[in-house]
Every structure is written in structure tokens, then in C-alpha cells.
Amino acid sequence: MAGYTPGEQPRDGNYIKLNTNENPYPPSPRALAAIRECAADDRLRRYPDPLGTAFRQAASRVLDVDPDAILIGNGSDDILTITTRAFVPEGGTMAAPTPSYILYRTLAQIQGASLEEIPFSDTWQPPSPWPAADANLSVLPNPNSPTGTMVSLSNLKRLACECNGPLIIDEAYADFAEYNALTLLAEHKNVVITRTLSKSYALAGIRFGFAIADPALVREFTKVKDSYNCDMISLAAATAAIEDQAYMREIRRKIIATRERLFQELVHLGFEVLPSQANFLWCRSRKQPVKPLYEELKRRLILVRYMHFEGYGDGLRITVGTDDECDRLLAELRKIV
Amino acid sequence: MAGYTPGEQPRDGNYIKLNTNENPYPPSPRALAAIRECAADDRLRRYPDPLGTAFRQAASRVLDVDPDAILIGNGSDDILTITTRAFVPEGGTMAAPTPSYILYRTLAQIQGASLEEIPFSDTWQPPSPWPAADANLSVLPNPNSPTGTMVSLSNLKRLACECNGPLIIDEAYADFAEYNALTLLAEHKNVVITRTLSKSYALAGIRFGFAIADPALVREFTKVKDSYNCDMISLAAATAAIEDQAYMREIRRKIIATRERLFQELVHLGFEVLPSQANFLWCRSRKQPVKPLYEELKRRLILVRYMHFEGYGDGLRITVGTDDECDRLLAELRKIV
Predict the structure, then answer these.
(1) What ipTM does the predicted assembly reach?
(2) CB-based contact (8 Å) between B227 and chain A?
(3) What's the pLDDT score for residue B177?
(4) The CATH fold of domain A16-26+246-336
């Protein structure tokens, strides 16, 4: 087993990092204040609240869901690990669309399960009917990575009905999109929605994600998770961040504006770019191989993500940075392309 | 499956908490400064170093081991989960002594494996020969919880030789003991030592633990762990804390002094107390049932841990607090016993 290889995280600060979909803006000042407060007395000698009650209450208010419908996680990777362990037996089957988030394959491998990869349709929708209805677990990211495309709400509902097992809708990037799947939860008890504070809340460094699902499912997940899977500082920062919706909306607005401009410029440069509802753009080219472009950009201290998918092909997944960072990227691309 | 129930963590601050082996002293000021530094700029928008290079280098210097022999974890619970997933197949067998840390049973259950519980000898050593030599994984805490007793180095060596599979020596409390098992690593490639910063470093709130093992094993564990299992703040705090050995030694010295005094007083009150090399004492009584004592102490706002083990019996596990906290406990016990 090879294990999952995350995007490059160079330790020196000289790169323009457009490769791991981090937010180019700082976290909410309220989140940073909450972190400093944790270091102001001796509270860190104590174990954190294993259930993350304060976060669940805050998220419950913001998202208008039952606090008991919320499961806290050490990043949404932890949530995906918990749900995989809860649902998928050794020798079982997971299903996910392709091309998509490459972690799903690793999760299946660690669990001793197989992953059935189901190609998206030409319009980036899951095929109808879903050919893996009997999988122990189906996972669908929405928006999808690396494409930034969205599955429609009606197709999500169809998929939730067709799946005999649970369906995870991985909404890591949903805050950048025009809609999300929260409304499905009331009618579809097999749907688990996962979220993260790594992207829209600019808090990849604290590792915090959560799931929203039927409270009966959340109770089962709670038995599988490490008791203290979230630390006290992450919980405090996440609670303050999700309560600061005004700040999140403001940085999201800037990222979406930059995304639309970057999209136009990349199309102008001759790339085939998919309209994206996430904080990244998926760029392919029929004119030239893109791997050398990735390498040349890296030499010029700009990191983007080169990705290749068996049976589909390759491309560059470019995170939407600040306007300045995107201008630097475009200037270099104009010299190279 | 019932899941693991951690010790009570009341959210109000009125209790004297002697039930979950937290450190009564604050974390190192250097750790707290490192946390504040993380909140001073925008670094938290970035993902953390997945390998925790800075921590591994610091721990390598302090413990005089190869940095590649160190695996970082989100608490030592995460380390135990990672190793269980790496070694134990569904339907496999884990082995651990009894009475011991009750999490091991939950870990086996989540993995769909069985736990073989092997009673300690009268002198709190593992029986010779180890009856579970063919288990997929044997786990031995040293010092043991709830007893605070130690397995001798020669018995640890014997056990490492007898086990055909890997042997985890869970050293969560080793900093309070007179020796540890680090010297075994050179000769016994199947030994994995786990440590935590929750106890001796007074950082239960940050969730940080690590393993020390053969670098070839650490490479395999790294494939199983969540890529970003440790967050940036915990890594920074853990690195600063382990570098501040003078501070750790000072609070350890105070805790050991209080432990010895508390031991004498509890014996004086008529309890059967085992000499402990950890930061807690295991108290039993032939004169009266101890569960009502736990309940009465709780009514008087002092939390200790009542534990019952099938085939062995029950007792109170009392964390060593500050001198003041222990005096309060003793004063109440004198009224109740």
C-alpha cells in the first residue's frame, strides 16, 4: 500500500502556494483571539470536551440544524475515516465518482476494502442509475475536486434514493458554491454531509471538520471516533470562526471575484477551464502537455497541483489566491505557454 | 458496541478533578508562548507539516533517538488507533493484561477484533510465558493504569522476545517512573513505545502523543495515519514543551513528592494502596465498599475515578493533584471513611 500523498507543503516561505486549496486570507480575528485566550491560563492541562458541545451549539445556530446532528472531527479527513470505519467492513466496497478526491482510494485501502470508481457523465453528474447502489458506502464531493463542478440537487436526491447504503456528500468546498445539500438531510436518513474549516474559514492549520447527519448516525460515529479527537484550541477557534459569518462571507466574496477573473484569463491563455464553484480551477490543454508547465512554474516559485487520473487524463488544479498571487501566476504563464 | 466512556469532564469549574490523571500544574510557559505565536500572523490558513519535522527533531535530541523513529499523533489514542489499524485485521486478536487501560477493548471492537485479557501475576508482572504470543498485537501499559505498577525491564525484554507479533509498550505515564523501555528498541524491532504530552507535560488540551519504533515501522504507520493528523498549534506547543525539560522535571518532582505523601495518608486511612510510579494511586478497601465513597466525594465536589474490572474487583483511581487539592481530598475522606 502506498498511502496518500498530500500536496507539497514546502517549509520555506518563498513559494506562491496555489496547490492545496488553502485560503489566501488570514483566519477571522475572533478565531485568533480565541486561540490566544486558550494560552492565557492553565486550561490546556485539562482534556477538551469530547463532544465539542460549544462548537455544536454554535454550528447548530449558524446552519439551523439540530446540535445532536453534528459530529466534530480532527479535519474532515478524520470524519471520512470515522465514517469509513463505521460503515465499511474489511473486504467491503466503497464507491466514488472519478476523477475525484484521491484520498477515497487510500481510505478504502486502509480499511481493507475495494473502491469502485464510477466515471462522471459529460456534464459532471453521477450516472443514472448509480451503478454502485449496493456499496457499503458511496462518497461524492460537491463541489468536486479537482473539477470544481457541482452535482445538481435533483441528482443528489436521486443518488440518495438509489444508494442502499449511506451516502457521504463531501462539502469541503460548499461555502464557495451557490447551494449545498443541507436540505436533503430531513428526508434522506442515509445522507452524511461533511464540512471543513480548512478552506472557507482559512483554518487549515487547526485541523477541524464536522459532519451533519441523522442524530442516530452521529451517536454511532461517536462510538468509533477517538474520544478526544478534537483539541481544546481547535474547538475554541472553530467555534469563534463559525460564529463570525460576516468575516467568512467577506473573504469568500473576494475569492469568488478573483476566481471569475482568473477563469477568464486562463481561458484567454488557451486553457480548457471548467466553470468552478470551489476555490480552485481545473485547467487542461490540448495544445501542450501540462506537466512541464507545473514543473516550470515550480522553478519560478509558484506551486500548482499537477494531477493525473487513470482513464481520464491530466490537468493542473490551481487554487484561487489573492489577486496579486493570481497576477504573478498569469504573468509567468504568459511567458511559458 | 458501547464505545469507550472517558472519565467525567464536567464543564463547570467547581470540581477538584482527580479523575482523569491530568497534571495539576500549568503547561510550560514556552509552550504557551508558542501557541500565542501561532495566532500572531496568518500561518494558520496553511496546512501543518504532515510529518511534524520540527517536533521529531526536538524529541530526537531530548530522547536520543533517530528522528525517523518518531511518529506524531493526535494524542496517544490516535497512535494506538493507527497501530491497531496497521497490525490487526478484522477477526484478528489483540492481547493486553488485566486490569488495565479499558480503551484497548474498545480499540479491538472498532477493528472487529477480539481482545484477549491476561491477568497480571500477584507481583503485577505479565505471566511467563505470555499466553498470547500469536496475537496480532500485544499492548502493555507501563506504568500500568489503574495500578501505577511497573513491569520490570527484564520482563519487558522477555515479553518482546515471546511475542511473535508487535508489542506496544504504552508509556503514557513513564515520565513519572524510575525507568522506561527506550533501551529495548535497539534489539527488539517489534517494540513500539507510545508517549503523550497529556500527563507529564500538562497538555491534555492540545491532544499530542507520539510513538518511538523502528523507522521501517514508522514508515508503515505514516501510510495509515490521517495525513494531517496533528495541527499546527499542537505541533508548535509540543515542540516547545519537549524542549523545556527543566520545566517538566520541576512539575514532575512536585507531583512525585505529593504522590508519596498522599500514599502514606491513604494507607493511614485504611486503604490498600499500591506503590505507584505514575501520577495516580489505586486504592481499594476490605473494610467498606468504595463506590459509595466515590459518590459521596462527588457530592462534595471532588471527582475521583471509580473503576470495576470483571474477575478482579473495584477500586478508586485517584490522580495526584496539588498539595492543596490532596489535602482537601484527605479532609473529606477523613469525614466519610
Answers:
(1) 0.95
(2) yes
(3) 98
(4) Aspartate Aminotransferase, domain 1 (3.90.1150)
